[in-house]
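Box 3.1 A note on notation
Throughout this textbook, protein chains are presented in two layers. The first layer is the amino acid sequence; the second is a token string describing backbone geometry. Keep the layers aligned when reading.
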Amino acid sequence: MSEPLSATRPVTPTRSSVRTFTVAAVSHPSPGFARVTLRSTGDGFEDEFEHLGYDHWFRLFLPAPDGSLDLPFGPSQGWYSRLLAIEEHRRPVVRNYTIRAARWVGDAWELDVDLVIHRDQTGQVTGVAARWALETQPGDTVGLLDQGRIFNMDDHSGPVLVVADESGLPGVEGIARSRSGEPGDYVLEVPDSADRRHHIDARPVWMVRDHTERVGQRTLDHLRATTIDPAASVYIVGEASFVLGARAIVTAAGVPKDRVQFCSYWRTGRRADRQ
């Protein structure tokens, strides 16, 4: 049996339904990311949404290849069955993303979302969501389903170690902001030094890999050479083999398995499903 790729204790929203959002703005904060601001459209999201901070995530519904957006409207329960009931050629693309920032503006919620721009060895952009992020314009419509947060160390008062590659970076930024002033160490890997970013009350150790290196390899080498506090709780997110490798290292260092939360966001050869 293969190893599980996720072990978390998520905090789920009280209410959640598939809602429509419009693109309010698009920017490019660093070479590896596009930032899309989404604005709620007054169809009920405003009444049911509570921003949970940390790595609060959602499912993003993007237009089908023909440009149509046929959404599986309704509550969170049963959304996937409703999605499959949509004709395949009109079925929206679904990806998972983290809310970098949320704010109430006028009479609507605005959510900033950072999408990793994946490129192959020739420099070509890969992945449906990455291409969408580079092409979308203000006024475009998407769907959104709130899913709550994954990071959950509410019952832990000791040190925390957070380990992530670039796909986890937007969520880690939210975690650092929500944990401002609390003890924690962050080991973060990015493909470009310009993708490094400031974290509130955190001084992360940055690993910048070159194009010849496997995702996560520098971070795994760093963890092997680091004294890891067995009293820490650990949170690991990113590419599948990197996540499992980091988990093995921290448990070998004495961190109990029940204090290691981890989630695979993507797998080498397949683009990120969650960011």
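The longest strand covers residues 17-30. The mean pLDDT is 92.
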